[in-house]
Amino acid sequence: MNLELIWERFLSILSADEAIDNVYYKKAAGIPFLYVQRKEDGSQKEIENRIRHASAGAMKGRQLHSETEFVRKDGFLLVFRHRFYVPQRKMFCCGNLCPDCIRLK
């Protein structure tokens, strides 16, 4: 699965939002950081909710999860550590009678 396509869709959804002036992301040491320039009337909680909804829209129809953590703010610029990841659970039965078998759920 190409996560770059998910990131592009996610950023396009966020950039179309009326509470956000500018949005981009950079990777530092392999960790993606999301930079959100909010408008004057937008609060941090509101921006976090909009990020959550944009993530859900970008991941729709795929087995992905997202994780967002606030890092810092500088005036109207908010920085988040945001990542999309594939869940680390068994997706099929291997036949070894594992205690956490997908058939038992």
Automatic annotation (TrEMBL):
<protein>
    <submittedName>
        <fullName>Uncharacterized protein</fullName>
    </submittedName>
</protein>
